[in-house]
Amino acid sequence: MNTAENPRRTQLALGTLALGAFVIGTAELVIVGILNLIAEDTGVSVGTAGLLVTAYALGICIGGPLLTAATIRLGRHTLLWSALSVFLVGNLLAALTTSFGALIVARVITGAIHGLFIGVASALAAHLVPAGQQGRAVAMVFGGIAVSTVIGVPLGTLVGNAIGWQATFVGIVALGAVALVATLALVPRIGITGPTGLGAQAKHAFAPRVLAQLGVGLLLLGGQFAAFTYLASYLEDVTGISGGAVSAFLLVYGIASAVGVFGGGRFADRGAATTLVVANIALALILTALHYVGDNAALTAVALAVWGLVGFGLVPSFQLRVITLAGPGGDLAATLGASAVNAGIAGGAAAGGWAVESHGVDSVFVLALIVMVVALPATWAATRLRPAADEPARPLSPVADPVSDPL
């Protein structure tokens, strides 16, 4: 049965992909909330324990595309459940060890699987639905990650502090097992959706038009995280709030981000390239406002909510543009999108750290604004990018029935 002709089955499949993304997003970010516990148990400093965050990010940026390239001949369904299986093993290793070195290895492995899974899941989601609904399908995957920041990360942190950080990873493994079973049962057994040769995939995925779009995404996310990484410090030093109030403001941002991702899917379907331009302009205005109203708690809360809506609402448009511009190389390119986002986050955080050390925490929004202004001409120019004339805008092979995938 073709999922395009069975809306209920399509929604179940998309919901399953979102669940997998929720588990993976929780595993990525929950480490921040239990970092001090890990440092204490493994006998390292908190600063050294922070390398667990770096290891995961490197896994996404480098390992994700490499794994995708190595598994390009596997059917998409097989690749999804295999990725989740390895992800569970990696987190089980983290739960059973007290060796910091083993934890680093586990984080690199799970980070690479993160990049692979999100790329394959978003490309597959776009493949499951008719043209005109792909943005909303991609938003389901990234929405799972967004919701993990609002629900999964706080719960995982709570469990870790109440029972022990190993229990957090056990919880991730348990929920991941549910996602694995659901993937086996509910996601259609789709075979290979593009060229089977790595060279053919790479030719499309690394085309100049795709690289240009990836650069735009890196700037848009990097500029935001130059400021967001130090938002808690900004709220304390400039807005004048502390303790639970800071958490409440971050929760406002997190909820708005989740809503923005799901809503952003609809705008992506209406016009992904135009949505990115509008979002870029809106972000420049929002960051300017935050710089000037940062000492007013009420206005800051409103600005943060708008920032969350727009800042993450652009992600489905970005990912859909990358997949579309890559044509038959969409599977590999989708993973590059995740790499660009994480590279932007890492670069933005580093640049923001320099700004804080050199000019104080109130300078981060100025830096973020500068990046957004620099990005705007590139974002506008990227609206002119089109897939090559001899390439389809998305994989056009039909969705396979459950029995038709030989893998």
From TrEMBL:
UniProt KW keywords: Cell membrane, Membrane, Transmembrane, Transmembrane helix
Protein localization: Cell membrane
Pfam family name, one: MFS_1
Annotated Major facilitator superfamily (MFS) profile domain residues: 13-386
Primary localization class, coarse: membrane
Record field: transmembrane: 12-38, 44-67, 79-106, 112-130, 137-157, 163-187, 210-235, 241-262, 274-293, 299-320, 332-352, 364-382
InterPro entries linked to this entry: MFS, MFS_dom, MFS_Efflux_Transporters, MFS_trans_sf
Protein name per the record: MFS transporter
